[in-house]
Amino acid sequence: MTPRPAHDVPAPSAPPGSAPGTLRPGGRTARVREAVLRTAGDVLAEQGFDALDLADIARRAGVGKTTLYRRWGTPGVLAADLLADMAEQSLPRADTGSLATDLRANARLVVKTLSDARQGPLFRALIAASLCDGQAARALHRFYSVRIAEWAGCVADAVARGELPGGTEPEAVIAAVSAPLYYALLNSGRPLTTTDADRAADAALAAARAGVWVRPAGPDTGAAARG
Are 9 and 29 in contact (CB under 8 A)? Predict the structure, then answer.
């Protein structure tokens, strides 16, 4: 589908110290960003990171090259902004009152995303890009940090309810849910299923209940307890 042309408007200057591609504009500039990111996502999903040519993206999105180069500058910055937008648009975490159910919801969301006809290839392209482009790598790390932080609340709530040992690291548990699913995506070559999702969630839950991700006591903690 050909994206709706966006008006070529000057890109506003980012505040001092802000990273490229992190400005969140409104109005016409927001429409330019939407068109460019939608087009970039299509190209990544269809052809991969190597095909992310800024002049071609400008043409496809109906945006002037001057605006696109001023705003993004490199394919890595464009991929970074795409990931930032995807993190913003992602669904909020589940809150069912049960960690087992919450973790399964998280795992099934990951499987649904990675199995999507567009999102699956898009993520594979972004992962590949992160291996050869520092900006893309940092953006991918930020994306997962945002999503893990969002879902970590499930684990923190479970610790408060007494479902998990005190001192359990919420982020580590959430990362353990999705890690085998991404491994399967990149290595098995077969479609992911809800069974894969549930197994990953259940395995992470079992390990968390066993205290695998309890923060180790510091050197002063034991002394204080003995005192």
Answer: yes
